[in-house]
Design goal:
It comes from Mesomycoplasma hyorhinis (Mycoplasma hyorhinis). This protein has 218 residues and is α+β, with helices and mostly antiparallel strands. Helices cover 65% and strands 8% of the residues.
Length: 218
């Protein structure tokens, strides 16, 4: 994907978007996930290979630093390297699902200030993931499988149940009740505005459509 993105924007001489795409890859994919996953599998060869490619694509933007790092890490001259392409793997569905669940569990932990010393106990409804995927989730999210139906998280592809202590359940119940009250008040507010003839007659069309869109979302 990164190869195609760079080629696409290079043809349009849109260097700012090339830089943005590389930045997102380095900080979101490479740093956040590739290195973390590599810690579990400890495959230094592939990690160095990807790092070499990262330094090469970064070179036009930070030439002196990438030259220095390339020489120090690989004991080679960067400018003597052939163009290296990032390999596109067709079957990434498995790891994408792992990342999806781990991200959601981490967000929940952070949102509710749950210590990393405490394992999250979760259960995936209609789980189809294999044991390797579940082991990765457990290690990356500091979690463990525990069948329950206490509190639910929904992602694009999964429904995840979290086993919570009684105090956490009470907190979650209060949060849900507060959110329901807020949404009910917003529905009343938006409905009142949209039923006001003066508003409909005088407000710009864009504002009316925005209010209708808000009401549909509620």
């Amino acid at each position: 994907v990164l190869n195609k993105t760079i080629s696409k924007y290079m043809n349009k001489y849109n260097f700012s978007l090339i830089s943005k795409s590389i930045n997102e890859f380095v900080f979101e994919d490479f740093s956040s996930w590739y290195i973390e996953l590599n810690k579990l599998h400890k495959n230094g060869y592939h990690l160095r290979k990807v790092l070499k490619k990262v330094l090469i694509v970064l070179h036009p933007f930070i030439p002196f630093l990438t030259d220095y790092l390339f020489k120090e890490i690989f004991n080679e001259e960067l400018l003597e390297q052939k163009r290296l392409m990032f390999r596109n793997y067709k079957n990434t569905e498995k790891i994408d699902k792992v990342i999806e669940i781990v991200s959601e569990l981490r967000k929940y932990r952070e949102k509710h200030n749950i210590s990393k010393k405490e394992k999250l106990q979760y259960w995936i409804k209609n789980n189809s993931l294999d044991s390797d995927s579940l082991n990765l989730i457990n290690k990356l999210a500091i979690a463990e499988i525990f069948e329950n139906n206490v509190s639910i998280l929904k992602t694009n592809n999964f429904e995840i149940f979290l086993n919570l202590s009684e105090s956490k359940q009470n907190e979650e119940q209060l949060r849900i009740e507060k959110e329901i009250k807020y949404l009910e008040s917003e529905v009343q507010r938006s409905s009142a505005i949209l039923s006001n003839p003066n508003f409909l007659a005088k407000a710009p069309k864009e504002k009316i459509e925005l209010e209708k869109s808000k009401l549909e979302d509620y």
